[in-house]
Amino acid sequence: MNGENTRSKPLSRKDFLRYMALIAGGTITAGQYIACSSKKDKYAHITGRINGASAATGHRLREGGFPPPEETTHIHTVIAGSGAAGLAAGRKLRLQGIPFKILDLEPRPGGNAASGENTWSSYPLGAHYLPLPNLQNGDLLELLREAGILTGYDTAGLPIYNETDLCFDPEERLFIRGRWQEGLVPQWGVDADSLSTIQRFLAAMDYFRWVKGSDLRYAFDIPVACSSADPQFTQLDDISMKTWLQQEGYHSEELQWYLDYCCRDDYGADTSTVSAWAGIHYFAGRKGKAANAGPSQVLTWPHGNGRLIQHLLQFSQDALLTNSLVYQVTPAGDKVHVDYFDVIRQTTCRIIADHCILATPHFVSCRLLPALQPANGFVYSPWLVANITLDHIPASSGYPLSWDNVVYKGRSLGYVNSQQQTLLQRKPEKQVISWYLPLDHLPPTDSRRYALSLDHTHWVKLITDDLELAHKDIHRLIRNIEVQVWGHGMIRPQPGFITGVALKQAQNSGYDNIFLAHSDLSGISIFEEAFFQGNKAATQVISRS
Ligand SMILES: Cc1cc2nc3c(=O)[nH]c(=O)nc-3n(C[C@H](O)[C@H](O)[C@H](O)COP(=O)(O)OP(=O)(O)OC[C@H]3O[C@@H](n4cnc5c(N)ncnc54)[C@H](O)[C@@H]3O)c2cc1C
Predict the structure, then answer these.
(1) Can you provide one Gene Ontology molecular function annotated for this UniProt record (predicted)?
(2) I need a labelling partner for 72 at 20 to 30 A (CA). Which of 214, 373, 379, 381 fits?
């Protein structure tokens, strides 16, 4: 969903050329642009669509003008938003036997952890993996056990995970200096000075992973709310990750690239944009261990975190109303009126509830409940995910095809081989890969506007050109590209945001029976935080019931 007015001023061809050149990291000529627009270039055979979140439905929120509700129903609790946070809240309420309805503007639940499928594979539309949970994160471990992903504990108390849910080998590779190396930390052709700087950095992250503050909490933890409030660590939120790296004397081109990659991966923005606290948290917040996997291994599925959504959905399936745009939430004494627009029937409806949980992105919650402080300081990284169907991935020199495949200094984050986790006897007839691009080339408002205005043919060119960096002539093998644009993909932890006033104020609605639950409220966007926020809001409802 896009919160800004993307239609105010038409974009010219020159604007598009400039934007495409930024993404490509090179020049796009007018000739190439015309050939691509008119499907006369070498990519003309590639089919597909842009599937983005329902921007048009979302825009109705901004436009307003809904007629008074035509129908009224009653329920104990309404949850607005069926992303991971909303579904987590639904699960908790269901386990307590509390009746609820869950409304989402999209035709399908899951938010940016939703998944899709075609004849050959299922695939993620956004989130694709869950790192091993921290051992203190009991709620999440319990969820994984319930879902059959965690099968038990060894005698030392370490979780044992289902082997088919752990990322299969080979896990990661990096295309650097003309060949693929194992792992994403640059090694191939890296000089001794750089290698030792990288080692020093990783050792520092190990220190930050286990150090505790004066309040005896881990300096960096997941959920973020469990992290230490000790100023010696929280002050790292005042400066950018890039500034901190400079202050600490980390001068290595390869390390700088790797950290930009990591920050773009988790926050959709590089080290110059996110805070040092957030940059360090990427490494130090994760302390997961398992009896049958190394600490850096991840849990993943062909449909990415869609697997977790599928599990959560079991608790809400009969309570879910999709295509239902919540447009107004009004406190009314000890009740709350939740007004929504039924996109299919084109009617407006009201639910009168005892409680409401807003599991919508914070900028949306502020529109729904005008008493909330405006979402100033909440900056969102736009994203693009492309699911690409091709005959096969061509072999190239070095380490073999892995689950995660990244190009050193590429503008995208590379691609995930969604089918690596499938348990088929025979290789599927077609391969499906998921390609990730944080749209961080311009300020988010501009990026969002340009990205939503480009045609499918333009994206096909940009995506295929990027893949050609490591796989020459791969365009001949590509059949279809399904493009997903996430206008407000992830909250961006810019300096001062995680420890700042805006995030603190956003935690409470100011009403006893309205609760907020979205990963935005953690300041970083990962499944664990969405799950935590959903559970927290549901616990508040339960304590009042
Ligand atoms: C491209 C991408 C890749 C990611 N990769 C990973 C990953 O690999 N691992 C990981 O842990 N995390 C990842 N994340 C982040 C992760 O997906 C999120 O943190 C988490 O899923 C967010 O869940 P949520 O419920 O907080 O919010 P959302 O997913 O934003 O859910 C909010 C829901 O509210 C609905 N909604 C909005 N407005 C209204 C309205 N007015 N009325 C009704 N419904 C409304 C939306 O349709 C949506 O379903 C990724 C995110 C993106 C964008």
Answers:
(1) oxidoreductase activity
(2) 373
